[in-house]
Design brief:
- Helices cover 58% and strands 0% of the residues.
- With 53 residues, it is an all-alpha fold.
- The chain has a domain of 28 residues.
- It is elongated.
Amino acid sequence: MKQKPHKSGPSAKPAPTAREERLKAALKTNIARRKAQARARAEDCTDGNDKTT
């Protein structure tokens, strides 16, 4: 049975690039916007059920 070579040095990931940072920020804002839209839709649905005609 062969042993795998042992890695030396830190095993941390390299620093994210500027592109990765932009994508991460865009994803975060997109998710926040979608959650706000979902909350608004849920509130509209509950308000619509209370009407009596």
